[in-house]
Amino acid sequence: MNPEDVRLGDWKRILLGSTPAWFIVEVLLRAAVLYLVLLLVLRVLGKRLAGQVTILEMGVMITLGAIVSAPMQTADKGILIGILLLCCTLAFQRGVGAGGVASEKFELATQGDTVMLIKDSVLLLKALHQAGLSRHVIFAALRSKGICHLGEIKRVYLEGSGNYSIVRREVEVAGLCILIDDGGLGIHCPCSKNGYACEHCGWVVDEDRFLAPCPNCRSLQWASAVKG
């Protein structure tokens, strides 16, 4: 388009572009056909794509959106090319899934591994750093499950899909309180006489050792260990 063809107030160009008005009907037809094919592809891909998805499946979803966009809206793009690309994406995803079933190493390379974030009520700081997560993000996820302190937890895993798997202790121990004292709801953690918890990693020590650095992370910040 030449610069002189761009005029403010040219509503035909703004609303329809350079395509004729009848192309709107063709756009509706293109959208209907590609939508039906896309639904078919998603149905074949399986129910997991509609729920919590892995990195691989998220990539497939973004690819599907990019494929159907141009054939829906561009007059010089045929819809058969879009349908062919949808089928290629379906075959690729199915192939990667079959490769994951055949080889555990291939599955780990394409979908990621499970990472342990909390072990025996103590934060694994190195694992948090590698996963790009902060303590506040983990604490928020735990609070959403009704957990008040780390002493309730045996293990926390970050799955390949991004979900958190939480294994609770059968018998609670003293741990670091993760509740937020907002001064309004009256929510609090009961104090325990079982020592102090490191505010950085949750390591619990006896009362006579809390003035020394944390033996796990060398932090000097302590809080009273709590137990529900």
UniProtKB/TrEMBL annotation:
It holds the Pfam family DUF421. The chain crosses the membrane at residues 20-42, 54-72. Keywords: Cell membrane, Membrane, Transmembrane, Transmembrane helix. The keyword Cell membrane applies. Residues 103-183 form the YetF C-terminal domain. Gene3D superfamilies: bsu07140 like domains (3.30.240.20). The keyword Membrane applies. It is a multi-pass membrane protein. It is found in: Cell membrane. Its main location: membrane. Coiled coil: none annotated. InterPro entries: DUF421, UPF0702_alpha/beta_dom_sf. Belongs to the UPF0702 family. This is DUF421 domain-containing protein. It comes from Pendulispora brunnea.
